[in-house]
Amino acid sequence: MRVVSVTASRYAPIMSSDETPETHEGAFSDPQYRAGVIELLGLLSFGELSACERLTKDATMAPDLRTKAQLYAMAASEWDHFTQLRARIEEFGEDPFAVMDPFQETFERFHTKTEPSNWLEGILKAYVGDGLAADFYAEIAAYLDAETRDLVLATMSKTGSSQFVVDQVRAAIEKDPTVGGRLALWSRRLMGEALSQAQMVVAERDDLVAVVVGGVDHPGGLDLASIGRMFTRITEAHAERMNALGLSA
């Protein structure tokens, strides 16, 4: 999966070996920044929980035990990420489930519109979703304090799905070339729906957006043009992943 480099936060420098978590207190003295970070952690947490649930469901459609085991391993990785994020929300003194709750509708909309009809569509959805999420949150992480940024990047790391999905999809296309066309259409549908939901989240969550966009008190965030370029980079990264699968984006 593509690794996206991020720049130093506008709130705090990257921690050196002699720094401690106390150096991050300045960032959280801004109540809107604190609220935005908690919203981000809630969004990430629900996303990981949802991914765990979907992969477990996809495992029931797996064609063999080896594939079933791989999907459960991927689900376990998502669950581990979820527990790390949940713990961080609790450190803020917040109820993680209350923080996650507002994002249920967003994910339900996406899943309702992108219900896979077979296990190949299921694993491709996991692959596309994992890649898009990693790219999107890595972009956002550039505007976070170092401690939050490190957690976000760590929980958006590989779930072990990349090579597994590439091998499975390429093998299926080699066996039946018509599969490639159907999966290419499916990937474009997934991409369109994912971007649509991401844009809706950006439009709906003022505190979350304030962390990234900034303003007179926190200059240097993303302006509208920068947000457009960010989505362009995410789209290009998706095309690269589809290339690796032998699919056209």
Describe this structure in words.
The chain is globular. The model is unreliable at 1-23 and 215-219 (pLDDT under 50). By secondary structure, it is mainly α. The protein is built from eleven helices and no strands. Helix 2 packs antiparallel against helix 6 (119-141) and helix 6 packs antiparallel against helix 11 (224-245). 39% of the residues are buried. It has helices at residues 25-28, 31-59, 65-91, 96-100, 104-113, 119-141, 146-155, 162-175, 178-204, 206-213, 224-245. Helix content is 72%, strand content 0%. The longest helix has 29 residues, at 31-59.
Query: What is the residue-mean pLDDT, rounded to a whole number?
Result: 80
Estimate the global geometry from the Cα principal axes.
globular
- What is the CATH C level class, in words? Mainly Alpha
SS element count, helices: 11
Brief summary of the model shown:
This protein has helices at residues 25-28, 31-59, 65-91, 96-100, 104-113, 119-141, 146-155, 162-175, 178-204, 206-213, 224-245. With 249 residues, it is mainly α. The chain is globular, with a radius of gyration of 18 Å.
Describe this protein with a few key phrases:
72% helix, mainly alpha, 249 residues, disordered N terminus, Ferritin, 11 helices, 0% strand
